[in-house]
Amino acid sequence: MFLPLTLAFILAHGRLGTAVQEKALGPQTTEAICDVAAYFRIKLDGVASAQAAAPSKAQAATVNLLRIKVLFERTKSPADRQRLLAILAATEAEHFKTTGHDLPAAAAQRLAAAKAAAYFLGSVHEYLSIAGHKKVDSTAGCFATNTVGAGANHRTYAELQTWKTNCKAADLTKTGDFTTTGKFSAGGLEPIGGRPTDVTANEAKCRLHSGADNEGVVQNAGADNNGLLLAGGLLKLGATTPAFADLSQLHSKQAQSDIQAMYRAYTAAATPADNLETGLPSTPEQLTAKPLFATALSKLTASKKPLAGPELTAAIADIYGKPTADLQAQLWSKMNSIKAPAEHSSEDKGKPLTDINDIDLLLEMLVNASVDAAIGLSASDRCQCADATTERSSNVDEIKDKECNGKKGDECTGECEWDKEKETCKPKNKGEEENKDKTGTTNKTGSNSFVIHKAPLWLAVLLF
């Protein structure tokens, strides 16, 4: 009699323990898991979208800068070159800073945020896939539609995704209008109504949630001490039921080991879309926020200190007319007259500068424009140099005249000679002496002889 009663007690006790441990999650806890997954899916999709758009934005910004540079090199008006120079300096500096520092840093942040979010979502997806693999109408299932008891009111993972759109968030093969508006308390991911605790009143044979001795995933006693976690730390197996994690004030949970994957994903910086200059400024006022614009204006106006405030406004007015000047009419409209070569492999061949988006073609146009501008400047410098040489020669002659004119009699020697007819001391004509030695003639036959001798020199300068 004792043995049957003891056996019955043991069986009953074991049955009771199993019943306590194998309950399904109620709808509130299930929805909370899906909402947290949605939060990180939105974050993941956001950084992925921003990174996907980064190359096209960088290209547009480069095209914008190259157009300004080509226009500058093709511009001959000193006033327009001055206006363009300040804009070009500001745009170029901003572009180099952005592409050389800001964009790589932003890309690295996005990669870290995407990695952390995807890692966490993978854990949640694995849990939902296993726990919601199937259900049995009688008693089996991990996700209940209510907490009354076990039975037919259970959902598989696929049914959860139909029940709540957010339940598709952890599955990266699915898309949806995920939202977390009004879902969480400030400072973390705790549900507005508090931490959910709902489980079914009766067992549901969800062996995944079992924490009983020698039941489910636990073979030895002490589930509380084993730190068994599910869904990336959202659920922790306890001695009786799985407990939903404390997600309040997540920034302070750095030392909480059971939610480290979630903490990393939550605190990872989600850098927004790149802020690149992809269009031409319509007014000088738009550029005042760029430090190098004010610096360039300071140089152009020979200001002793960096321009700011009223001084900057005055400098803009001096160069552009006013801070709200229409740069389209003043500068950018001139791009229409600069066209790509008609014979070219690019699809943008023959188009005006404003319509060219081919970076290779723009670079080619910039090289050509820069070389042409350099050649023109070199020719101008040579002409100025020749003029300066002539001027210096004239100055030397004037000095010699003064030196010789002040001499009398025997003092008129060396580079000076005495004119007996005029009875004055004058400089010797070196050219005459040389010509006497070589040809026996002088340049005094007429003014045309000077033109004849100098003409080859000027021709050589022009052909150089």
From TrEMBL:
A single cellular component GO annotation: plasma membrane
Source organism superkingdom: Eukaryota
Biased composition range(s): Basic and acidic residues: 420-439
GO biological process, one term: symbiont-mediated evasion of host immune response
Pfam families per the UniProt record, alphabetical: Trypan_glycop
Subcellular location: Cell membrane
Keywords: Cell membrane, Glycoprotein, GPI-anchor, Lipoprotein, Membrane, Signal
Main localization category: membrane
Keyword ATP-binding: no
Trypanosome variant surface glycoprotein A-type N-terminal domain: residues covered: 18-368
Region called Disordered, residue ranges: 420-446
Tagged with keyword Cell membrane: yes
InterPro entries: Trypano_VSG_A_N_dom, VSG_C_dom_sf
Topology in membrane: Lipid-anchor; GPI-anchor
Listed SUPFAM superfamilies: Variant surface glycoprotein (N-terminal domain), Variant surface glycoprotein MITAT 1.2, VSG 221, C-terminal domain
Range of residues in the leader sequence: 1-19
Function according to Swiss-Prot or TrEMBL: VSG forms a coat on the surface of the parasite. The trypanosome evades the immune response of the host by expressing a series of antigenically distinct VSGs from an estimated 1000 VSG genes.
UniProt-recorded name of the protein: Variant surface glycoprotein 653
Organism listed in the record: Trypanosoma brucei
